[in-house]
Amino acid sequence: MIATDLENTRSLLLKSAAGLFAEKGYEGVSIRTLARAVDANIAAIGYHFGGKEELYRETCRFVVANMKPRMAPVRESLQAILDKPGFDPVTQSADVRAFVALFISRFVHDDLNRSGQALLLREYANPGIGFEIFYAEFIEPMHRMITRLYARIRGMDENDPASIIGAHSLLGQWLAFKLAEEPFLRRMGWERVEEGQVAGIQEVVVPTVMRSLGLDRD
To answer: In this protein, which residues make up the domain named HTH tetR-type (predicted)?
Structure first.
């Protein structure tokens, strides 16, 4: 019973910390605020994490652990393309289109992990002590896979700087909907991107991405 209570407190601290750190940043959240948010004493944070910095790192790891299952179908979709030898635009363009559409839907609309995604994007835009965790465990692996895809389609070496630049440009076409979300929502007159609105984004962005890859010239 005691062990269960301790684990519950730890889990509550991590969930609460993700929301608070995402909203206010590392410097904007005090240990006292964190403890008060879950009705725990300050000593509980020291017991579970040792201090604020380690709590922040563990929160980042917690966010990654929660995001990986949601993004797993995206990685699997891309890996299936990369597992095939070479690239045939006639037979594989549809697979690439499906991958891009899936990535957009999973990333642009994520009600289950909004605070975690916001923390990731905060570190993405302004790297802090949690950036290396997000980069090593989430950002870099996907970036490398997309670089491989870009290089294969273009007939380039995946280690060529131009391949990395091209892949980063592709990512930017849908990351912008989160990194610059507020201006987009204001222009659309939305409070947030709802599930039913994702299709409209896909209809515009997917063809743009395909054209940038030279796979859709219509």
So the answer is: 7-67
The fold of 57-212 is Tetracycline Repressor; domain 2 (1.10.357)
Question: pTM for the complete prediction?
Answer: 0.86
Calculate mean pLDDT across residues 154-162. Answer: 96
Q: Higher confidence at residue 137 or residue 6?
A: 137
Tell me how far apart the alpha carbons of residues 120 and 127 are, in angstroms, rounded to a whole number.
10
Maximum distance among all Cα pairs of the chain, rounded to whole angstroms? 64
Average the pLDDT over each of 52-61, 81-90, 95-104 and give the range with the smallest value. Answer: 81-90
Rounded Cα distance, 180 and 199, in Å: 19
> 112 pLDDT band (50/70/90 cuts)?
low
For tokens 């990512």, the residue is 171
In this model, does residue 7 exceed pLDDT 70? no
Cα 22 off chain centre by: 13
**DSSP letters for 153-171:** HHT--TTSHHHHHHHHHHH
DSSP string, 171-218: HHHHHHHHHTHHHHHHHHT-SS--GGGHHHHHHHHHHHHHHHTTS---
Domain ranges of the chain: 57-212
